[in-house]
Design goal:
By secondary structure, this protein is of the alpha+beta class. About 35% of the residues lie in helices and about 25% in strands.
């Protein structure tokens, strides 16, 4: 666990200032980081904050003294979903122990840059109520939109970023609780039961032993995680150098409408060779992969509350109706209804 102290500095006024300080703190994502401010006009003179790294792109900052609170964007104090913990050692012990579950709410305000590749000792279940989370692990990229739950297994090396002011709740499961659960990231479309369980766990006192009812709820949670969606938002990234050159170009500009022959030329391959090689590496045809890439880009823009018309044009569709039809075919609903909001915990 790392600790950094700023001597005789004013307490940061808002979350943005804290984030700037955070970028100067070395924190391995498996651990807990501590930031302490030494204030000359406060008793006690040191006020410590802890940063829990659910991912390096999304973190929670909460004070270690008094009741745990987060600050709203307007600077108003808001009760956190955490119970009050007496000191940082207790928090560290909980995070690194075999405590079966830890849960908290999180909220981001803007688009985040890619966090460096990292992993976690615990499995992570996200219950997203707003925005979306993008995760890249190995040669695959996953997109987890709001109103769904997402799973990232323990010790899974991944990079991640959030878009559209991602918000929701997260549950950390211990290594023991992760046995028998999926070994790769996955998504759950039918998440009502998962959301309900996560919200219940948010109210638990982490210091109290688990009752039979709580153990039963955890067992139900694990049963649900064992049944991920069979058609996740997943985009394999070809690793062969020539194919990767094509994939990178399309990910940079999904509206690029060059023909299959033109893309084969970019790869320096004959048309048929390119088709076979791309399909072998990506597990789908080049045409299907390009459509999936456009869908990923569209979801990212929709999460930022851009209009359907603006998104359709940006991802290369000549008509809004054609874009909506593609969206409905791929995801079973229209863009307008896909991000229809679920209330965040503690808000009505």
């Amino acid at each position: 666990m790392q600790e950094t102290v700023w001597a005789n500095r004013a307490l940061p006024a808002n979350a943005a200032e804290l984030r700037n300080i955070w970028r100067r703190v070395l924190c391995v994502s498996k651990n807990v980081a501590i930031i302490s401010f030494r204030l000359s006009n406060v008793n006690p003179p040191v006020l410590s904050f802890v940063i829990l790294p659910p991912t390096l792109a999304m973190f929670s900052v909460v004070p270690l003294t008094g009741k745990w609170r987060t600050m709203s964007e307007k600077g108003q104090s808001r009760k956190s979903m955490f119970v009050a913990l007496k000191n940082m050692e207790e928090l560290r012990r909980l995070y690194e122990s075999d405590t079966p579950v830890l849960a908290f709410a999180f909220k981001r305000r803007a688009v985040e840059d890619w966090a460096p590749e990292h992993s976690h000792l615990r499995g992570q279940l996200f219950a997203l109520t707003r925005g979306l989370l993008i995760v890249e692990a190995g040669s695959e990229r996953w997109m987890f939109p709001s109103q769904r739950c997402a799973w990232i297994p323990p010790n899974c090396m991944h990079a991640a970023r959030s878009v559209g002011g991602a918000a929701g709740s997260m549950v950390y499961l211990s290594a023991e609780m992760c046995r028998g659960l999926p070994k790769v990231p996955c998504m759950f479309n039918s998440s009502e039961l998962l959301f309900a369980i996560v919200h219940r766990i948010l109210d638990w006192d982490l210091r109290q032993p688990l009752t039979p009812a709580k153990k039963h709820l955890i067992a139900t949670l694990r049963d649900e995680i064992r049944q991920p969606d069979q058609q996740p938002l997943r985009l394999p990234i070809p690793r062969e150098e020539r194919l990767a050159r094509v994939a990178d170009a399309l990910l940079d500009d999904v509206a690029d409408d060059r023909t299959l022959d033109a893309w084969a030329d970019v790869a320096g391959m004959a048309r048929r060779t390119f088709m076979r090689a791309f399909s072998a590496q990506a597990g789908m045809s080049f045409g299907r992969w390009r459509q999936q890439a456009r869908l990923f880009a569209a979801l990212e823009m929709l999460a930022q509350r851009k209009s359907v018309t603006e998104v359709a044009i940006a991802v290369g569709y000549d008509s809004v109706s054609a874009f909506i039809e593609m969206f409905r075919t791929m995801l079973g609903t229209t863009p307008q209804t896909y991000f229809r909001g679920r209330q965040e915990p503690g808000h009505k």
